[in-house]
Amino acid sequence: MSGTVHLDIEGPIATITNDNPTKHNAFDDDMDAQLFAALAELKSRKDVRAIIWRGEGPSWSSGRDVGSIGTNKTELTHHELMTRGHAGIQQIWEIDAPIIVPIQGWALGGSFQRALLCDIRICTPDAKFMLPEVGHGVIPDTGGVAVLSAMCGPGLVSDMVLTGRRLSSEEALYHGIVSRVVDADVLMDTAKEMAERIAASPMVAVKLARRVIGHLNRPPVRASMDDELIFQTFLNRSDDFAEFRAAKAEGREPNYRGS
User: Which residue from 49, 55, 71, 177 could staple onto 12, CB 3.0 to 4.6 Å apart?
Assistant: First the structure.
């Protein structure tokens, strides 16, 4: 059974919930569509002053549900699917209300990158952050690499992307990926307190401050996502990716040729 993404609005605060806890909130195509629909609604809701994007269960999100890949039939090309995904998640930038992401457990792959596109991230001590895509024959493709580079510099980014290194909550705080580490039993209370403080501030000041901050790094993030769109499409059809899949299916060592 597929998971769901809920949108609940209570007064000036909206809550998006990743709800697929048995799979650590891994996303499939249906959940993507529900998320993008929720973001589209939030673009039009001028009464919403702050947003919390949370995850049900032990993790915020473990990334893509690999078991769902290839199960949804579509006539769209890989390039078209990626274009649709980029347009869907970039709606975050068109929402006036800031988005706070309280993270527990895993924040993995594309889901981690989506969290990086938001305004504020906090986490529990058990939170873990990874970009494992290269080990699966592809590259990160949701803009997170550009955001991480601005936060942490190319050294840590290269380590995480090229080796798939897992980052702890302490390291995430040190590098500014999260702004606070709080105990699990107060994670949502802390996020709500932050959202209430934002919602109580003059709306136009919050909106314009968010735009100023966004303009500082958004152009390179957009440029990076444009590159990711092209390179990921190439990778999907590359000889090395075909060899990666064949070697895995046949239980043998791959023979990569760099093409």
Answer: 49
User: How far out from the chain centre does Cα 91 lie?
Assistant: 13
The pair of structure tokens assigned to 211 is: 């735009």
For residue 51, give the nearest of 5, 86, 4 by alpha carbon: 5
Q: How many residues does the chain have?
A: 259
Q: Cα separation of 90 and 36, whole Å?
A: 9
Give dist(CA 93, CA 12) in Å, integer: 19
**Domain at 4-186+197-203, CATH homologous superfamily:** 2-enoyl-CoA Hydratase; Chain A, domain 1 (3.90.226.10)
Torsion of CA 86, 88, 90, 95, to 10 degrees: 180
Amino acid at 17: T
Give the start-to-end residue ranges of the domains of the chain: 4-186+197-203
> CB–CB of 104/124 below 8 Å?
yes
Question: What is the pLDDT tens value at each position of the chain, 259 positions in all?
Answer: 578 999 999 999 999 999 999 999 999 999 999 999 999 999 999 999 999 999 999 999 999 987 655 455 667 888 899 999 999 999 999 999 999 999 999 999 999 999 999 999 999 999 999 999 999 999 999 999 999 999 999 999 999 999 999 999 999 999 999 999 999 999 999 999 999 999 999 999 999 999 999 999 899 999 999 999 999 999 999 999 999 999 999 999 999 999 9
Query: Considering just the CA atoms, what is the radius of gyration of the chain in Å?
Result: 18
Task: Supply 236's token pair.
Answer: 């999907």
Q: What is the largest CA-CA distance in the chain?
A: 61
- pTM of the predicted structure, to 2 decimals: 0.94
